[in-house]
Amino acid sequence: MARVCRTAKEFAEAVKDNEEYITIEGDLKNGVLRIKATGKIAWGVCVASLAVAITAIAVSPVGGGAPAGAGLVMAAPAAATLGAAVVPAVTIGVCAGGVGVLNTLRDKYKIIEKNDKYITLKRK
């Protein structure tokens, strides 16, 4: 049975827990599809800027402020490749505590089912 995720936090926890099957519903599925579809070279460029953005946002004070704003600016190179999926990528990374969860998504999971409402991933 697949673990169902509707939020970035739920998804980050499922990946960190090494769930065998993960079903992603709602708008989050589109971001995950885009992350999975990004080529290796493009991902290499993205992951560096995502790491800086995630770190800046994670260490920012609760109200946002300069570090959070700098994090969003640093996500610009990733946004050029990922488009709107940069938002869920950063959100997932912040929830998980770093870009490792995004690399795990790309390297350790494959899409086994997708439709307009959800996608299901299986651990390789």
List the helices and strands and how they pair.
Blueprint: E1 3-5, H1 8-16, E2 21-25, H2 28-37, H3 40-58, H4 66-74, H5 76-82, H6 86-96, H7 100-108, E3 109-114, E4 118-123
Parallel strand pairs: 1-2
Antiparallel strand pairs: 2-4, 3-4
Structure in words:
The protein is of the alpha+beta class and 124 residues long. The protein has one domain. It is 60% helix and 16% strand. It is built from 7 helices and 4 strands; from the N terminus they run E-H-E-H-H-H-H-H-H-E-E. It has a 4-stranded mixed β-sheet with strand order 1-2-4-3. Strand 1, helix 1 and strand 2 form a beta-alpha-beta unit. Helix 2 crosses helix 6. It is globular and about 35 Å long. 33% of the residues are buried. The model has no long low-confidence stretch (mean pLDDT 86).
Structure characteristics:
124 residues, four-stranded mixed beta sheet, 7 helices, 16% strand
SS summary, helix count: 7
Total number of domains = 1
Mind summarizing the main beta sheet? 4 strands, mixed
In angstroms, what is the radius of gyration? 14 Å
Strand order of the largest sheet: 1-2-4-3
Q: Report the strand count.
A: 4
Overall shape: it is globular
Low-confidence stretches: none
Strand content: 15-25%
So what's the oligomer here?
single chain
Supply the helix-strand structural class.
alpha+beta
- Overall mean pLDDT: 86
Distance between the first and last residues' Cα = 16 Å
What is the chain-wise order of helices and strands? EHEHHHHHHEE
Q: Percentage of helical residues?
A: 55-70%
